[in-house]
Specification:
208 residues; alpha/beta; binds NADP nicotinamide-adenine-dinucleotide phosphate; 6 helices
Length: 208
């Protein structure tokens, strides 16, 4: 039986492990061609090899604004017009508010907020230009967090960044709904992955 996403082309950011790898596997299982991207190319290459012929591995650092367009060019050249973006790449942004440096704050926002926004906008422009949006297939899913609306102690930068992702999602959903693009967010609770290896229940903290 054909999967429910047969014919769709998906891109997952931060697919080198954790939730991103899981999302990529689900999309592929449902029949989508999947581009798996992250900074660690060896890991996404191994995942793409496992997923099979309709998967593509690409190195993409979403904090590098200039890299996002060329990566999507490559996805569309190889797999076809992009119809699904999973904005999953994220960093933990640990540090007490009294101690977090300006650079660490900026680094958290560069990935979690600016990277999410720039990838969403680049994808949206392409979905509109290719006719995917008009066809009703365009989906953008941003990975927010329980930290979007609940304080996780000691994670001020992370919590603020994920609250921004939640509001960004609402803003984009409102702006692009009439253009045929559905924008949604997932807000997971604690799931044991590398992101919370140092602060989750394993270490007595609350995790993200
Ligand atoms: N686990 C949880 O409890 C939980 C709860 C709520 C929300 N979330 C969110 O879920 C998402 C995935 O997190 P996870 O739990 O799966 O953690 P993870 O295992 O640490 O995965 C994070 C992923 O993001 C990628 N990444 C980090 N910086 C990047 C950058 N600059 N450019 C591109 N990719 C980057 C990492 O790949 P590379 O290092 O190879 O680039 C990795 O694949 C995050 O947005 C996180 O905030 C997680």
């Amino acid at each position: 039986m054909a999967g429910s996403l047969e014919g769709q082309v998906a891109l997952v950011t931060g697919a080198s492990g954790g939730l991103g790898e899981h999302f990529a596997r689900l999309l592929a299982r449902e029949g989508a061609a999947v581009a798996v991207t992250a900074r660690r190319l060896d890991r996404v290459q191994a995942l793409a090899a496992e997923l099979g012929g309709r998967a593509l591995a690409l190195q993409l650092d979403v904090a590098d604004a200039a890299a996002i367009g060329p990566a999507m060019d490559e996805v569309e050249r190889t797999l076809g017009p992009l119809s699904i973006l999973v904005n999953n790449a994220g960093v933990g942004g640990e540090g007490l508010a009294l101690e977090v440096s300006a650079d660490d704050w900026d680094a958290t926002f560069a990935v979690n907020v600016r990277g999410t926004f720039l990838a969403a906008r680049e994808a949206a422009r392409r979905m509109m230009a290719s006719g995917v949006a008009e066809r009703g297939d365009a989906r953008i899913v941003n990975i927010a967090s329980i930290a979007s609306h609940t304080v996780l102690p000691g994670l001020a930068a992370y919590c603020a960044s994920k609250a921004a992702v939640a509001m960004l999602t609402k803003s984009l959903a409102r702006e692009w709904a009439r253009r045929g693009i559905a924008v949604n967010a997932l807000a997971p609770g604690y799931i044991e992955t590398d992101i919370n290896a140092d602060c989750g229940p394993r270490r007595g903290g609350r995790g993200s």
